[in-house]
Amino acid sequence: MKRFRPSEANAVDATRVGEELRDARLALGWDIQDVATQLRIRRVYLVALEEGRIGDLPSPAYAIGFIRNYAALLGLDSNDIVRRFRDAATGVVAKRSDLVFPEPVPERGFPTGVVLLLGAVIAVGSYVAWYNWSGSGERVVDAVPPVPARLDPAVRDGEALRPPRVAQAPAPAPAPAPAPSPSPAPANPSGAQPGPGLPPLPVPTPVPVQVPPPPPAPAAQAPATPPPPAANAPIVLRFRGDAWTEVRAPGNRVLLSRIMRAGESWEVPAGQTGLTLATGAGQNMEILVGGQVVPFSTDLRGVRRNIPLEPRALMALPAQ
Amino acid sequence: MFARLFGFLSADMAIDLGTANTLVYVKGRGIVLNEPSVVAISDHRGRKQVLAVGEEAKQMLGRTPGNIAAIRPLRDGVIADFEVAEEMIKHFIRKVHNRRSFTSPMIIVCVPSGSTAVERRAIQESAESAGARKVLLIEEPMAAAIGAGLPVTEPSGSMVVDIGGGTTEVAVISLGGIVYARSVRVGGDKMDEAVISYIRRTFNLLVGESSAERIKMEIGAAAPPLDGEDGPMTEVKGRDLMNGVPREVVVTQREIAYALNEPVTQIVDAVKVALENTPPELAADIVDKGIVLTGGGALLYRLDEVLRDATGLPVVVAEEPLSCVALGTGRALEELKRLRQVLSSMY
């Protein structure tokens, strides 16, 4: 078989070969359908061959086989015809014989390398951030914030109330339980600062008798027992923290029933009598009668009910 | 990286290890060897030595004295004599491998689609023992289809019939894979045997394999001549079975066509069975385009006509049918990355 010679590629074209085949067929007096029946090749392919339409043929391998069979049937030199056809169809043959195997569609998303790199960067960043914020040397205990300014009155009130209590109960109490923030200075022998607004008291605690009255404040403010408030003194509920609070009038009429927030205060309406108070967090609340903190309310704890909101009754209640 | 380096340093090759002929394709150089798969072994005082391989050994076939044996190590497409096959591959590798190469070559060998795992392993191991760095296998019908230039990767069915020396492979290929394959152990050898058998029966004359093959190639036909004549004729020499003396008779194409009727019918039946098992969509494609014949058997005169009449489909013979498998295997070697999925390995 003759080999393909590129120099001849453009010398002939497929149409010439097709015309030659058609002329040979017509010379024999055959219809194209006769050829199709004999060779079992579809009529459309034979017509495409005769008209030189290479693109309409199934594949170069088949097309060349068809031409060979057709030429042999017509009694032509099939090798020569095939060689000329192949020369004409060189470009098409080369282009269509590429084998491209079907491949699975690559999964979308970042490439694995990028994902790994991002993961590593995030991990290192998280560690650095954690190290910086947690390893700064400031211990949690030290990080207790100072007493806020709005609690200063309470602190002072606590101081004002503490000496009489100490005087009334002169039992040696070298180290009472840690009090809430307005704990009076004498109760803290270790010298820890109770608050920024209070100077440390140079009071030695071992002998309670020697406890001098607090220098200026108690002397200036009040005697050991405050005067009983007037019957119509205004009653104010002041809240240090969140506390559910309910105030009922006689006949179970609800005047207040909600969670009071820290810093809020509620004044008992004037002229109302027979009111009772219930709270869910007594430690977050204090009751002021005529501007004075009721001793009973200073150490309230937890849920308390049926506290009468009467000035005298409140003052008469024993301290907790 | 090492594979690329080794590939650069060695002459990788593709081998069509056929029952009748072995073709070797060397990367970048094309088919460089086409020789009969025959090895002549001499037995010298109990020590076996390779005397000749290929064409030279084929000349000795049937003409050897007692201490020499001309052996065809492949039968029915698979290795029948492991050691001799190994020697033959070794010889061919030595013959075509570049002496300047430092490393041993990678080899792609084709195997019949109907071969068992044991037979494939035997082929792979013999190639490895012969000095291959790495051995990959490709199924013969796929190699034949690639070598014939069929659009094997398109979503369209292609039927290829590869008639080799030992086997006939019928396969339907689509999307780069074999959809259906059927391998029957009928091929050129069986045709030769049929010719020998016919001449012995008809003329009481015993002829050798080489003579039978020559007759088949000269005047063999799949169907008798149409015009009622006997067609071309040739003389054949052999030994008379009646009186034992050498004799010469003349056989005609009509007689040989008659003799070849049985193997040809088996091939036609295999094609029909394959068509029966083809999925309908692919069958529609095959009706459109037809069947492609490859292998030496495709050159049998009027075989395409017989198949065309039997199936009602267009039948075309591939260009260079004898080397289609080697060309396809060679293309797999050249485009190893792209055609990787048609290659396999037993390990």
Gap from first CA to last CA of chain B: 21 Å
Biggest sheet of chain B: strands, sense, closure?
6 strands, mixed
SSE order of chain A, one letter for each helix or strand: HHHHHHHHHEEEEEEEHEH
Q: What's the story with the biggest beta sheet of chain A? A: 4 strands, antiparallel
Please tell me the overall pLDDT of chain B.
90
The helix content of chain B is 25-40%
> Ranges of chain B with pLDDT <50 over ≥5 residues?
none
β content of chain A, as a range? 5-15%
Short description:
Chain A has 320 residues and is of the alpha+beta class. Chain A is built from 11 helices and 8 strands. Chain B has 12 helices and 19 strands.
Please give a handful of descriptors for the protein shown:
heterodimer, A: 320 residues, alpha+beta, four-stranded antiparallel β-sheet, 8 strands, rod-shaped, disordered N terminus, B: 347 residues, six-stranded mixed β-sheet, five-stranded mixed β-sheet, 38% helix, flat
Describe the structure.
The complex is a heterodimer of chains A (320) and B (347). With 320 residues, chain A is α+β, with helices and mostly antiparallel strands. Chain A is 38% helix and 12% strand. In chain A, the strands form two sheets. Chain A has a four-stranded antiparallel β-sheet. Chain A has a four-stranded antiparallel β-sheet with strand order 3-2-5-8, with no helix packed on it. In chain A, strand 6 and strand 7 form a beta hairpin. The termini of chain A are far apart. Chain B is α+β, with helices and mostly antiparallel strands. Chain B is 38% helix and 28% strand. Chain B has twelve helices and 19 strands. In chain B, the strands form five sheets. A six-stranded mixed β-sheet of chain B has the order 3-2-1-9-10-19, sandwiched between helices. Chain B has a five-stranded mixed β-sheet with strand order 13-12-11-17-18, with helices on both faces. In chain B, strands 5-4-6 form a three-stranded antiparallel β-sheet. In chain B, helix 11 links the parallel strand 17 and strand 18 (315-317). In chain B, helix 5 (140-148) packs across helix 12 (324-334), helix 6 packs across helix 7 (209-219) and helix 9 (261-276) packs across helix 11 (303-311). The longest helix of chain B has 16 residues, at 188-203. In chain B, 54% of the residues are buried. The mean pLDDT of chain B is 90.
